[in-house]
Design brief:
With about 150 residues, the chain is α+β, with helices and mostly antiparallel strands. It contains three helices and seven strands; from the N terminus they run ββββββαβαα. It has two domains: about 1-105, GIY-YIG endonuclease (3-Layer(aba) Sandwich), CATH 3.40.1440.10; about 120-154. Helices cover about 35% and strands about 25% of the residues. The strands form two sheets. It has a five-stranded antiparallel beta sheet. A two-stranded antiparallel ribbon has the order 3-4.
Length: about 150
């Protein structure tokens, strides 16, 4: 866990922790239950290898992520092996952080952010089309060069 200033929305985060912390005991208790960071409210991302699979929020990270990890009937039980989490103190902050992550990170479950989406301005759409056309022209030109070289080498 890396700590940041307590004044912000996010008071700490964990990145790429293994799911197995919900299975392994340290003494008589599960390792995950002994980690103070996971006793906090926050937002989490479940990953399948390096790919974000699901983004969710929790009143207590340990309880929510643990239910994904230990209950075979849970919807995402079979689909993840690592997680990242963000401790967020205020309820409004949790909703906002979750919405930002959902908007910014494509996930397999295709959750929709609870944020107002800006309409793509016409000028930006035109620029994107132009850039795509230029990119396609470049690729075609490279392929033609490769084809000419291949013919010339025979």
């Amino acid at each position: 866990m890396t700590k940041s200033k307590k004044r912000g929305i996010i008071t700490g985060y964990a990145r790429g922790w293994p799911r197995e912390i919900f299975d392994i005991k340290k003494g008589s208790k599960l390792l995950a239950k002994q980690l103070p960071f996971l006793q906090q409210p926050g937002v989490y991302i479940l990953y399948r290898d390096e790919h974000p699979y699901y983004i969710g929020k929790a009143d207590r990270l340990y309880r929510r992520i643990g239910s994904h990890a230990t209950k075979p009937q849970a919807k995402y039980y079979n689909f993840w092996n690592r997680f990242s989490a963000f401790a967020v103190v205020k309820k409004e902050g949790i909703d906002e952080v979750e919405a930002i992550l959902i908007a910014a990170i494509p996930t397999v479950n295709s959750a929709k952010p609870k944020l107002a989406k800006e309409k793509l301005p016409k000028d930006v759409a035109n620029l994107m089309r132009e850039m795509r056309r230029d990119s396609v022209k470049d690729v075609k030109a490279r392929l033609e060069k490769l084809g000419a070289r291949a013919k010339g080498e025979k």
